[in-house]
Amino acid sequence: MDYRHIIDKYYPEDNALKQILLKHSRAVADKALHICETHPELALDRQFVEEAAMLHDIGIFRCDAPGIECHGSEPYICHGRIGAELLRSEGFPRHARVCERHTGAGLSVHDITTQHLPLPVQSFLPETLEEQLICYADKFFSKTRLDQEKTAEQAEKSLSKFGQEGVQRFRKWHQMFG
To answer: What is the pLDDT of residues 116-159, one digit of tens each?
Structure first.
């Protein structure tokens, strides 16, 4: 799969949003690939990890987040589901699962119902090791501070705003991948 072709299809102009997407996604992919190299015992699919990490935020252009140059109409929390729909329509259901399961440390039915999130009431928790890895790596990079990698403590603090479930998942991943 040539992920560049898919990015160019949905981001045809070389603008600020595309640059934010590319820089953020490359940082996430590089961290995830480094973990693949340092943990060969996990037998992670390296090619898939790179492709899925580069595409995990493909749906942001349809969302309303002006601080990162997103001027769409959907709530930002929906970017993973939107990206999943795009990638399924392209014939990449495995990559789509990464999109819809990377938000926060994944979203449970409990998260969606108690926080009244505008998402289908279903589990969006990462299941495969590759899904978990990309979700984990993503927590170290924001789209507003592209040149900075968060510490594990800073990533946990960001997640803690949304409850302890995600923090616990992150800690488990940190033991496995960190």
So the answer is: 999 999 999 999 999 999 999 999 999 999 989 999 999 999 99
Please list, in sequence order, all residues whose beta carbon lies within 8 angstroms of the beta carbon of residue 98, skipping any fewer than 6 positions away.
52, 53, 55, 56, 126, 130, 131, 134, 135
d(CA 14, CA 18): 6
Provide the 8-state DSSP code for 105.
T
Structure tokens at 100: 């819809």
- In tens, the pLDDT along 7-33 reads 999 999 999 999 999 999 999 999 999
Q: CB-based burial of residue 124 (10 Å sphere; 0-12 exposed, 13-18 middle, 19+ buried)?
A: buried
pTM of the prediction?
0.96
The region that residue 117 occupies, defined by phi over 0 for left and psi between -120 and 50 for alpha, beta otherwise, is beta
Distance of CA 21 to the CA centre of its chain: 11
